[in-house]
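Lab notebook: predicted structure, single chain.

Context: the supervisor wants predicted structures on file for every construct in the current expression panel, including those that have not yet been purified. This is the next one on the list. No modifications to the sequence; it matches the entry in the shared construct table.
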Amino acid sequence: MVQRPNTVLLRILTTTSLFAMSTTIFAETSQNTTSKAMDHVKHLQDYQVIEFRRYTIKEGERERFAEYFDYFPEAFQQMGAIVFGQFFERKNPVGFTWMRGFKNTDARAIINSGFYYGPLWREHASTMNSLMVDSDNVLLLRPLTTASGVPVFPAVDPIKERKGAQGVVIAQIFAVKPNSVDAFARQAEETFASYRAAGAREAGVLVTLDVPNNFPQLPVRMDGPYLVWLGIIKDNQTLESFFNPLAERSAQSLSATGLLRSAPELMVLDPTHRSRLRWLGEEQK
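Prediction complete. Output recorded below exactly as produced.
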């Protein structure tokens, strides 16, 4: 269909104006790029909707899946979401876990729609889906408090971090009885403090976000409520010598509160090569 001249002219003018505007913005933001970028990503707490996604991958295909997955984190970031990190579940050789954050529930629907109906996913969907057995084990969460969100760490530096993301990430998942999340969180704070004292860096305390799933193409679990504690540990020695004994004792004591529906689940997660959520040296934070 031939377009009317005035419509074409309007589009040209609009495109020109947008280009000029973007050029000005780029020039203004290019100054002190490194320091501003670091300020932007350090410990952001404003992603209020968090998907904790646990995939089952076909046996022997997890490494391959992780390599293909690296196409996607920057795409979400460009759209206003963030991939906090992606991990291999240590005790489950077919387990791949990742976390994604959105500013709010509306952003979740808009960004997921833009991504999953967009060109990048369409190009790789058949490959990714062929490697997955299940992708529906998803907790929809929010920070327990304004200070307990998941931090956004700088992207892995390919020059300074040639070995990729280091450290061990812990997710302890508590199935809480209905209407007992706040009471359980108060009971559990002493345990979480002991984790921090043992060398774990707390990386979030999250609870079930009890809202309708506004992007039903991606199912989420409806069997909550849950509380999820996240931490980062430097190495296996710290994990085995200090953290694990504490976690075993705490599982018993927290179960004895009568506020849980089942025993706590402890996930030991190894960051993949490009995971943001990882152990950072003091000079990197």
